[in-house]
Amino acid sequence: MGLFRKEERSSITPTQPVIFVPQNGFTLVTSGEQAVNATPALQSAVSTISNDMNAVRFTGGQSKVLNKTDFTDVYRALLIDGNAYMLIQKGANGIVTDLVPVDNSDVTINYEKGEITYTINNNSGDEPYNSGIYDDSQVLAFVMNRGTHGIERYIGHSPIESLKTVLEQSQLANKQIESVLKESISPKLHLELMADATDETKAKIKQAFMNANENDSVIISDSQIKVSKLFTNNSSNDNLINLSKTLSDSVNSVATAFNIPSSKVGANAQDDAQSSVDMIESQYIDSLIHNYLSIILNELHEKISDSVELDISKLTDFDNSKLIQQTINLVGAGILPVDEAHTILVKKGVLNE
pTM for the full model? Predict the structure, then answer.
């Protein structure tokens, strides 16, 4: 027996469904996209991260092409599926002219003898790319939380996959809250007869009672019938509601899975309350860079240009107020000459030439 594992040829479509079927069968989620649409906290996390990533500009080689490209859907696919793809289009001179997003469901990864190729099928016929087999150098493959062996090294996994149990509990808890509320608004009534009766008699009494009290807030009965509500607002119901509320709130779990502050997912959690606004924002930007933007930058370095860099000023100083104040302070301290300060502000678009 050899010491090394033989690598066989294999192919795989990278989009893996997130299967979520609660025990009572009231909801079916078969993909990350459906999970996002069904969970407000997930919607907030994916939208916030993808929009902020798209606000980042690029500098260095091929920055013109990169900055004219809308990456929002690409980033969204990366967050939801763990994978995202773009075809690199080049002119006759070898210069990149365009980057075309590819639907994840149109991609099949082929792995043979340590080499990767991508089979892309324009299944709908409506996408702006041609079907065919593409070399690894022709495809930007953004992959997060990748595997460790064979073809799994090229397959990503979304943070959503870690939320399966949390989402199940959240959906079940929301359903329980809805059920309790409905019961409290329109509780079922129990009619207790003061004497034994046949099934036929019981049915007639029930129908007569319903006819007499239809669409009326006043209940009519006589001494032969005892009326009671099956739903009672007691401490057991209160405890159930409180537990359900706790389980239905998936904000903190979603924030943990995506490694961002919970305030970015739509709520102010206790951990956020103990931190300053500046500290929370700093933690968020740090996570955005190291957990998400680094995936993009590494792939761009490998296949577009190793001089590509990130400009995150739109996230950290969206109105240039920090830049203006820092420039004023440097000029006032005699560190920065006025003409250089003017040049900096013009270059950043703060001043007109």
Answer: 0.70
